[in-house]
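REVIEWER CHECKLIST
Item 1: Sequence provided? yes
Item 2: Single chain? yes
Item 3: Sequence as submitted:
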Amino acid sequence: MQTNLKSNNRNHALEILVPFLGVFAPYKISVIPVTAIMLFIIVFFRNKGTLFISKQTMPYLIFVLYRVFRDVVHMFFSVSDPIDVQVKRLSEYIVLNALIIIMCNYDFDERILFKWWKIAGTVFGAGMVYHVVQLLIFHQSIQPISLIPGYIIYNEAVEDFTRPTSFFSEPAAYVVSMLPLLFLSLKRRNLKWAVIATFLIMMSTSTIGVVLSALLWVLFILFEKKSMKTTVISLTFVFVFVVLFMYLPLFSDTLEKLQEVSVGASTWGSRVKGPFEMISVMKWYELPFGTNILDTREFVFRNLSSFKSGSVPVLYVNYGYTVFLNTIAMLIYRYGITGLCLFLFTFKNKMLNKHYEARMYAIMMIVAAFAQGSVASPDIGFIIVLLYANKKRRQNSSVR
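Item 4: Structure as written out by the authors:
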C-alpha cells in the first residue's frame, strides 16, 4: 500500500466529471449506476489506473468497512427487504466507495475543478430558473428535467412537483451539488460567483440550502484570512441578500418555511426532531451497534408504547409515511454509537491539520448531518471533504 500522493497533469477527468456526479446519481445503464461508470473513468485515466490509498483516507476506509460488515449482519437478522435487494444495494455501496477512496487520493487542479463547477452550476442554475418561471409565471406543475430523454427521475414526495428541482429529484439534491460551487467561490475569493451560487441556491426553496449557504458565508467572514476590502464587500452582499430574501416574492415560500422551522415546525419536525425521537426509544443493547429492525415503520409499531403522544414518528406512520432519518440518527439507528464515532473520526485529522483547505466545508457537512440524510453516503459532499484531505498546496496557483 502506497502512502505517498501522486499527481498527474496529463488529463483532467477528475476535475471535469466530479461536478456532474450529483446530477447523474439517479441514472443507471441496465443495473450499473452512471456515477460508477464516471468514477471508473476517472480512476482508469488518472495515473494510468494506479491504485493506492493514502493514510489521509484510511479513517473513511475503516468507516466504510464497518458499515459493510454491519450491513452483512443485517442481511441475516433483518427481513425488511428481500436478500437480493440488500445484496444489490450493498454491492453498489462497496463499488462506489472503493472508486471514491481511490480517486480521492489523487492530487487535482483546483483552478480547473472550479472552472468546471462553474459550468455545471450554470447548467443546473438554468434548469432551476426554467422551473421557477414555469411555477411563478405560468403556474404549471413541474417534474425534474431528465438529462436522458424518456428517463423518469424518481421523486420521493408529491409536494415536490410544486417546488423547483432543476435536473434533480428534489431541491435538497440540487443544493448538495451547488454548495461546492459556493465553497470554491468563497475559498478562491471569487465573490461574483459566490453571489451567483447563493442566489441560485435560494431559488430552490430549500430551507436547508439557505441555512447551509448562510453558514458558509459566516465561516468565511469570521475565520478565513482575507483583505479588509473583501470583508466589507462580503458583509455588504450578506446584508443585501437578507433584504432580498425578506422582501422579494421569489423567496416568499422559503421565508415562510424558515419561519416555521424557527418555531419547531416544518423541516425541524421532520428532519431533526422526528429522527432523534426514534433514537430516544432504542433499547440500551441496540445503541452500541444499532438495531436490526431496518424498516422504520416496523420499529415504530414494535415500540409504540415508548413514544410520547403526538411524536413525529407516530404521526408519520399513522399517515402512511416512512420516517425520515438524518445522517446522525441514521448512523446510530443502523450502526450504533460505534458507527457514529467512526464517521466523526473521519473528520478528526482533517480538522486538526492546519493545512487542510476545506475546513469550513467540513464544518458545514457536520452541521448538515443533523438535517440531511445523505451526508455519510458516497455523494458529492463527502467527495469534497476527502479530495482536500490529499490536496497538495500550490504556491503559485491563481487566486481566481
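Item 5: Key structural point noted by reviewer: Confidence is low (pLDDT under 50) at residues 1-9, 156-160, 393-400.
Item 6: Recommendation: ____
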